[in-house]
């Protein structure tokens, strides 16, 4: 009769065992046995006896390992400098924490016992910083960990999970966070007071509301990442609703309607087409660059696509835009029916080239460069804003769709099927306001 201590995984010809929340596997090849249950179970039983003994002999990880490390560093410094009695107190506290004596305490209370309750905490930073033999491991430094986090985001960019702009914004935000903290600061000092001080610093800064929010969001994601890896205890106020920034009540700038037609008439070639696509379809330079031949219905005169900025999000809507007569005529003239890009420069390059090289962002925007030659006192982004502002007057329910935004409410996401006929009428109405 076969008696097994592990479970036979027939499709993969291996044995597996769940032990203390983890799954351990061993293949028949590794065991040196034929790939059958009957001929390999005895070797698998022997392997598990050895493996279990190895696991049981290991010292369990302490949930407060970073606090233990801090205490042991101070103990070692005291021993080295001739203070054995003081060193013993630190060592005894570290041992008690490792043994689980304080596991029932809230992390913030234990942190207060070790750092907040030590009047000479800042002195310890100076001592350990000067004593290179007792220097804090580099993986306990804010600067080192931020660099590792950015490496992770860079890997996500290369895997296509995030775009160039998201990586660039994350790097910009965390560079500001690192500079404010000082790269040599211990990650252990990312406590509630430090998080509140960061928010107050941003509150008083001259940054826009949107930029402040991005800095807080990206730095919060970084601190949460440290906590998820078990490197720190997260500040209790990390997700507090108290640390918000008020709404930005600045008026939305637009291009005067009476000037739009004159600007379009002044523009020539593809630059005219670019402006019309921004007005007709709410596009940005990146949307125009990413437009693919297969997203264009070359018979019906429509474009159906997701917005480039949020195309990685599953809830980003696929929107069909019916093109105005002039937009359609120019798109047929300059558009490519095959290839990766529907629109290219005269030299066959993408209009916007945006990539990360050696961790740095390299962006070339030929659409903006060509537009600047017109010497028009309105930026390109204002055409998208002008179109949405105009729609809001007559078709407010179509604005979010025009902009390609992810639905905000549960109703919009799950219960309402937007009317394509109404959206077509809204786009046609918008064209008439501009004289197209």
Describe the structure.
It is a single chain. It contains 19 helices and eight strands. The chain has four domains: 7-57, no CATH class; 65-136; 142-228, DNA polymerase, domain 1, CATH 1.10.150; 257-433, Orthogonal Bundle (hpI Integrase, Chain A), CATH 1.10.443. The chain starts with 6 loop residues before the first strand and ends with a helix. It is mainly α and 436 residues long. It has a three-stranded antiparallel beta sheet. Strands 4-5-6 form a three-stranded antiparallel beta sheet. The chain is extended. The protein is 52% helix and 8% strand. A hairpin with a 4-residue loop joins strand 1 and strand 2 (14-19). The longest helix is centred in the first third of the chain and has 21 residues, at 37-57. Helix 7 (142-158) runs antiparallel to helix 8, helix 8 packs across helix 10 (209-228) and helix 12 runs parallel beside helix 16.
Number of strands: 8
| Quaternary structure type | single chain
List the total number of helices. 19
Could you say which overall geometry the principal axes of the C-alpha atoms support? extended
Radius of gyration: 30 Å
Give the topology string: H per helix, E per strand: EEEHHHHHHHHHHHHHEEEHEEHHHHH
Task: Kindly name the structural category.
Answer: mainly alpha
**Domains, number:** 4
Briefly note the CATH topology name of the largest domain. Answer: hpI Integrase, Chain A
Strand arrangement, largest sheet? 1-2-3
What about the largest sheet? Answer: 3 strands, antiparallel
Q: How much β-strand is present in the residues?
A: 5-15%
Name the CATH class of the largest domain: Mainly Alpha
**Helical residues, percent:** 40-55%
């Amino acid at each position: 009769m076969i008696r097994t201590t592990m479970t036979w995984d027939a499709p993969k010809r291996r044995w597996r065992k769940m032990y203390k929340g983890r799954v351990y596997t061993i293949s028949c090849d590794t065991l040196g046995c034929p790939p059958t249950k009957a001929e390999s179970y005895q070797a698998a039983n022997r392997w598990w006896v050895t493996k279990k003994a190895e696991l049981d002999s290991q010292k369990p990880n302490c949930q407060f390992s970073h606090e233990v490390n801090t205490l042991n560093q101070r103990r070692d410094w005291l021993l080295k400098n001739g203070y054995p009695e003081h060193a013993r107190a630190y060592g005894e506290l570290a041992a008690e924490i490792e043994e689980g004596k304080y596991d029932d305490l809230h992390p913030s209370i234990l942190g207060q016992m070790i750092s907040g309750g030590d009047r000479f905490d800042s002195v310890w930073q100076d001592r350990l910083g000067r004593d290179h033999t007792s220097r804090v491991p580099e993986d306990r430094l804010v600067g080192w960990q931020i660099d590792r986090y950015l490496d992770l985001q860079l890997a996500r960019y290369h895997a296509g999970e995030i775009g160039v702009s998201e990586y660039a914004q994350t790097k910009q935000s965390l560079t500001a966070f690192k500079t404010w903290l000082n790269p040599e600061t211990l990650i252990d000092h990312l406590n509630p007071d430090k998080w509140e001080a960061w928010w107050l610093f941003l509150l008083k800064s001259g940054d826009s509301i949107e930029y402040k929010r991005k800095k807080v969001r990206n730095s919060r994601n970084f601190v949460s990442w440290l906590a998820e890896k078990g490197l720190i205890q997260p500040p209790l106020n990390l997700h507090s609703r108290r640390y918000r920034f008020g709404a930005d009540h600045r008026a939305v700038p637009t291009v005067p309607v009476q000037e739009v037609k004159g600007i379009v008439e002044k523009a020539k070639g593809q630059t005219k087409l670019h402006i019309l696509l921004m007005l007709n379809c709410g596009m940005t330079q990146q949307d125009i660059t990413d437009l693919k031949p297969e997203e264009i219905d070359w018979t019906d005169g429509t474009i159906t696509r997701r917005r480039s900025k949020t195309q990685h999000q599953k809830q980003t809507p696929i929107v069909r835009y019916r093109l105005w007569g002039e937009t359609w005529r120019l798109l047929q003239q300059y558009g490519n029916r095959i290839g990766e890009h529907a629109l290219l420069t005269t030299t066959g390059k993408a209009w916007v080239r945006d990539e990360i090289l050696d961790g740095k962002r390299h962006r070339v925007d030929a659409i903006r460069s060509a537009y600047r030659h017109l010497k028009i006192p309105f930026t390109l982004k204002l055409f998208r804003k002008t179109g949405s502002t105009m729609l809001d007057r007559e078709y407010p329910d179509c604005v979010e769709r025009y902009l390609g935004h992810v639905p905000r409410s549960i109703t919009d996401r799950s219960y309402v099927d937007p009317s394509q006929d109404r959206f077509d009428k809204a786009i046609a109405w918008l064209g008439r306001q501009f004289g197209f």
